[in-house]
Amino acid sequence: MRFPENEIISLVESAAGAPRYDLGESVGPDLRLSALLQVPGPARLDELSLGYGTAAGDVRLRQALAEAHGVAADDVVLTVGGMHALFLVAFIVCGEGDEAVTTSPAFPLARSALEVVVGRNLRTVATSFDRGYRLDPDEFRAALSPRTRLVSLASPQNPSGVAFSAPVLRDVLAAMQERCPRAHLLLDETYREAAFGDDPVAPSAIDLGPKVISVASLSKCHGAPGLRLGWAITRDRALRRQLVVGKFSTVISCSPVDEALALRVLAQRDEIIAARRVHLAQGLSEVAGWVERNGDLIEWVRPDAGALCCVRLKPGFDDDAVARFHEALARAGVRIGHGTWFGETARTFRLGFGLMTRPDLAVALENVTLALRRALPHALASAH
After folding, report:
1. 342 contacts 311 by C-beta, under 8 angstroms
2. Backbone dihedral region of 16: left (phi > 0), alpha (psi from -120 to 50 degrees) or beta?
């Protein structure tokens, strides 16, 4: 099979609909179409022509994204979601016999985009829970070779929400310049603007060098995953042209309806993101308190940004207890992101805290607590 199976598809495949308490998702509340229709646009949507869009994407939308990133509109290529951009970059940059480097754990679809292109020539650098999902510079350097053509990272990472600092990224680029100077650094910045409250937003990595490619979408920070609208930003003109041709060769263009609505999203971008930062800060606070109250059973890595984090069951949970925990969650109508989806251990799971209201999140977390204590009878006894 060209595309490896992964149970994360269950997030969008359930015929019965989402569970009552969805802690498995990594997004915030969805925008409503009615909110976008109330925003003035460059043209009435009911008069929108349903013809093909352009291969590069609507120039007004590319200009809006360019201004937000401090680049030129011609540096931006619109894609059908961020995943389309990740696949196109890998397919274009890597040829037969070339190698790519990424980290683990990782969003499985991002890994698949590399695996279907380079196969066994994918090198993986572990960023473990015990090290706070930080990149070990020596291990990263050892994964590079003269055959490396692409290094694909996410910052903040999915599933952990941990970001790579600018100094770390500069070290990454320095190692690449020494070991594989022809390689590009692809940075998935989908969660970059999903800061918590008044926390500063990390600048885009696009300014770190000409070999950097920034990829993102409207799915996470803006609450519009239903608009399949992503982008790749590169100052490499030859690569940018290949991205346009590659997009044309796979999907021709983005939907003009998606592009028109995306313009309206960006028109209220500051308000949308500001409100979501408050919501994410509240969710993070709720999770932090929950972890502290249940410190005898779980531990976590506090995220730098995003609507997600990694939680790990403590060593008292053997395989049978882990299975009982997941069974109890299912009975309570709670879904979490299994660590095995991302290349983590079964004792680790991704917890999303951005989708629900704070009261519902509190109830969902208490249901997780009950599942934890039911999985370990001695813990349940001590709780009483």
Report:
1. no
2. alpha
Q: Where are the alpha helices (DSSP H) in 103-219?
A: 108-118, 137-143, 166-179
DSSP-assigned states of every residue in 343-377: T--TTEEEEE-SSS-HHHHHHHHHHHHHHHHHHSH
Count CB-CB contacts under 10 A for residue 157: 27
Query: Which tokens hold the place of 186?
Result: 């692809």
Which CATH architecture fits 33-268? 3-Layer(aba) Sandwich (3.40)
Beta bridge partners of 21: 334
CB atoms within 10 A of CB 2: 7
The pLDDT, as a whole number, for residue 124 is 98
What is the pLDDT confidence band of residue 52, given thresholds at 50, 70 and 90?
A: very high
Pair 300, 309: CB distance under 8 Å: yes
User: Does the pLDDT value for residue 162 go beyond 80?
Assistant: yes
Sorted by sequence, the CB contacts under 8 Å of residue 327 that are 6+ apart come out as: none
Q: What is the pLDDT of residues 193-211, one digit of tens each?
A: 999 999 999 999 999 999 9
Q: Give the residue extent of every domain in the chain.
A: 7-30+271-377, 33-268
Q: Which CATH class is domain 7-30+271-377?
A: alpha beta
In Å, how far are 26, 35, 171, 221 from 30, measured between CA atoms?
12, 11, 37, 10
Residue 193 CA to residue 201 CA, distance in Å, equals 6
Handedness of CA 365, 371, 376, 378 (dihedral sign): positive
